[in-house]
Amino acid sequence: MFIFLLLAVLGRNCASSSSEIMRSSCEMAVPKCEFLQSKDCVGAVLPYRRTAPGAFTGDIVHQQDIQSSLQLWKALRTVPHCWEVVQPLLCSVYLPLCKVDDTSNLSLVQRPSREQCDIARTRCRIVDLYGGWPDFLKCNQNHFSNGCLVSMNDTGVVLNYNRFHALYVFSYLYNVFSIWHVLLLIVVIKYNKKLADIL
Questions:
Q1: What is the CA radius of gyration of the chain?
Q2: Domains and their CATH numbers in the chain
Q3: Which among 81, 63, 47 is positioned nearest to 171, based on CA atoms?
Q4: Residue 94: its H or E element
Q5: pLDDT tens track of the chain, all 199 residues?
Q6: Which residue in 151, 98, 141, 100 sits closest to 121, CA to CA?
């Protein structure tokens, strides 16, 4: 009985520690949070009240300048398969969720998702043809973190969780296998089918 209780306590402590590690990897301390001047983010309504402008965007630190910069990305609306993934990425980088931790009284900002960034870079290759991505939207930057997808499902901004992971797997396979590998695979399958019909 004593051993069972000891294991239960240890398990709870380990779970708590794991939760703290995950929280610390997905959040970053900032000097302060600001109330959003506008909840609009390139057509999406943000489901929170506070943000930390300039946390990830370098010299762009004022909300008015951030809104102006966001407008430059609206042209990607004409590329739907790109826009559906880049819009939530832009919102999470330019106007990230910020909150004050009740325990530590620290202002904490939500770090953007590296997986989401990878998908956007894969599906928005057109950006590379027209000036490229700013440094703060390059997925190798330290402010991007793994497993930190922020849900905004009530706004329709962020993709359904399962669909997001399906897209991530697709993007990974797309990067690993070029279109020539796919075409070769199709030819081999068709050739084997014809050979089977003859035999």
A1: 22
A2: 29-198 (1.10.2000.10)
A3: 81
A4: helix 80-94
A5: 434 333 343 344 433 333 333 356 899 999 999 999 999 999 999 999 999 999 999 889 999 999 999 999 999 999 999 999 999 999 999 999 999 998 889 999 999 999 999 999 999 999 999 889 999 999 999 999 998 876 554 334 444 434 444 444 444 444 444 455 445 545 545 555 554 455 4
A6: 141
